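TA notes, week 10

Several of you asked for a full example with nothing omitted. So below is the full record: structure tokens for the whole chain, then the designed sequence directly under it. When grading your own attempts, check the secondary structure regions first.
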């Protein structure tokens, strides 16, 4: 029968108490190695809509692409199912694993399903319908939601801009201990690598971003432009826990892909990731909790926007916005709640035009050069110091210099999404996949 190209997608193989889909994928790569003929690409780590409510952490699905003897294909789903049953915490109600396999060409319906899953909520029922229509072999557990991410990971293909991530894992038996990643080693790595890696540190609050915080098997993750870059960067990192295994993924992280759709305000729906071009109609103010709130309009409708407290100094940039400023807002749509209307969670902003900010003051006295006071409606001004009166004087206009510039503003790095295009990637487009290097995972 010959060999067949296969895409094997998976998602939601985790729980807050341990495990992670990428770690499972690395175990699976090791297990599949003797069965497959050739790996076609690095495993794909596809970040899906970061604004959906169901995610545990970074909403990532994984797809493995390889060729295999056609006679062996039927063995894969039973093999993966057995592994999922041993690996995942299936008693945890929010763990709903999904695994799917597609042979040969990826159907175009699956590609468009995946494109949607990056920026909006897609119904689970659609995933099952597509799987049935295309006779896609799959396994799900729990409520079956994992099939959404599994199919979306297969359908993505990473044909546009992409980056890489080196993920180092510790032993599953050590996931409740301190990782002990040495900050100075991350600083050295960051300095040596320049813009070949990104999102390593948050200098605004002196923290490392490569080290996660939960009890999961990830020891650290390094994001960068090329596989060789992330592998080189890892050689600088020191940690008290040892690396049990590692793998390089090709990803859509750092590409801003989730924000590539522009909407008018009336088209926004809860949980979308959306860009919109609008004008400030209500100046920003800080509310309790430290969130900066303002309102924008696209000339037909208006909507509340929030730069939440964790975005850090980004809020002080937001506070410098004035009525009349024009911007493109990158956001996640928060549904209406008991206390708030539908609100845009601002993930970034591109300032396109700054309004002239004018303030008015009373004129100075012609006699004593001190500030005058209003003498009453239509009665001009009077000087409270020397008593001089002026009927004809008007308020004086001041054009206040703006403290913002046109351009792209982002929350502090630690508050950015995996998909956010960081400053160091502005203008970059990695369009050609690097061929598999000899050693891209271990074991
Ligand atoms: P981890 O980072 O450990 O992999 P996670 O943050 O990826 O966790 P999951 O536990 O995988 O979160 O849960 C996300 C769930 O939402 C999955 O079941 C996935 O299939 C589903 N999902 C992902 N994107 C969408 C979407 N756009 N619409 C509907 N469901 C989605």
């Amino acid at each position: 029968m010959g060999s067949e190209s296969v895409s094997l997608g998976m998602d939601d193989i985790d729980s807050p108490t341990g495990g992670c889909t990428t770690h499972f994928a690395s175990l699976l790569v090791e297990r599949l190695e003797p069965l497959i003929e050739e790996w076609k690409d690095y495993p794909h780590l596809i970040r899906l809509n970061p604004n959906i409510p169901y995610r545990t952490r970074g909403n990532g699905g994984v797809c493995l692409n390889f060729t295999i003897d056609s006679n062996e294909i039927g063995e894969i789903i039973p093999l993966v199912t057995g592994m999922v049953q041993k690996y995942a915490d299936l008693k945890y109600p929010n763990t709903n694993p999904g695994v799917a396999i597609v042979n040969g060409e990826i159907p175009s319906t699956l590609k468009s399903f995946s494109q949607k899953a990056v920026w909006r909520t897609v119904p689970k029922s659609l995933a099952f319908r597509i799987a049935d229509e295309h006779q896609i072999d799959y396994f799900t557990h729990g409520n079956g939601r994992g099939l959404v991410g599994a199919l979306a990971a297969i359908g993505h293909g990473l044909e546009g801009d992409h980056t890489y991530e080196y993920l180092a894992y510790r032993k599953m038996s050590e996931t409740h201990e301190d990782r002990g990643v040495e900050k100075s080693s991350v600083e050295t790595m960051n300095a040596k690598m320049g813009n070949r890696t990104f999102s390593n540190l948050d200098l605004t609050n002196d923290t490392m971003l490569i080290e996660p915080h939960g009890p999961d098997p990830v020891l650290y993750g390094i994001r960068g432009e090329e596989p060789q870059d992330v592998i080189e960067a890892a050689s600088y990192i020191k940690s008290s826990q040892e690396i049990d295994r590692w793998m390089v993924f090709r990803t859509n992280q750092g590409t801003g892909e989730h924000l590539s759709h522009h909407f008018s305000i009336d088209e926004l729906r809860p949980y979308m990731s959306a860009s919109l071009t609008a004008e400030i109609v209500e100046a920003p103010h800080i509310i309790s909790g430290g969130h900066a709130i303002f309102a924008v309009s696209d000339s037909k409708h208006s909507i509340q926007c929030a730069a939440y407290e964790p975005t850090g100094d980004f809020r002080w940039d937001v506070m410098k916005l004035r009525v009349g400023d024009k911007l493109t807002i990158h956001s996640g749509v928060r549904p209406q709640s008991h206390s708030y209307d539908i609100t845009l969670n601002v993930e970034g902003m591109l300032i396109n035009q700054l309004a002239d900010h004018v303030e008015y003051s009373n004129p100075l006295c012609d006699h004593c050069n001190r500030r005058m006071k209003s003498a009453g409606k239509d009665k001009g001004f009077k000087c409270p110091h020397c008593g001089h009166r002026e009927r004809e004087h008007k308020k004086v206009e001041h054009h206040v210099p703006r403290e913002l510039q046109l351009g792209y503003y982002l929350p502090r790095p630690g508050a950015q999404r995996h998909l956010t295009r960081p400053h160091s990637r502005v203008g970059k487009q990695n369009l050609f996949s690097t061929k598999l290097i000899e050693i891209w995972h271990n074991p």
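Residues 357-400 form one domain. Use that as a sanity check on your answer.
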